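thread: overnight batch results

M.L. [08:02]
morning all. the overnight job finished for the chain we discussed friday. pasting input first so we're all looking at the same thing
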Amino acid sequence: VQLQASGGGLVQPGGSLTLSCVASGVTLNDNAIAWFRQAPGKEREGVSCMSNIDGTEYYVDSVEGRFTISRDNAKNTVYLQMNSLKPEDTAVYYCNAGRTWWGQGTLVTVSS
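M.L. [08:03]
and the structure it wrote out:
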């Protein structure tokens, strides 16, 4: 099983980024999917997740209304659309499938 995350980079406050996570060896549609992040000096925290049963989405309060999780079953890919980015969103972002498999992380830096 491999999860390959991409899409991170440097963006100015107020900007947008879309993270992607392509899976191989596991069918994302059969698993709950999630994005986590870890900022420097802080613990990893859950950002968003989506149920594989009914598609229910969850967002941590700090990103509610700004981030959107989605999946493309045909591409076996999960996305995290991030809008109105803030400096406090700076972190390494990780995708997760089935609460078991992790991607390698992609760095998002929000700075002017």
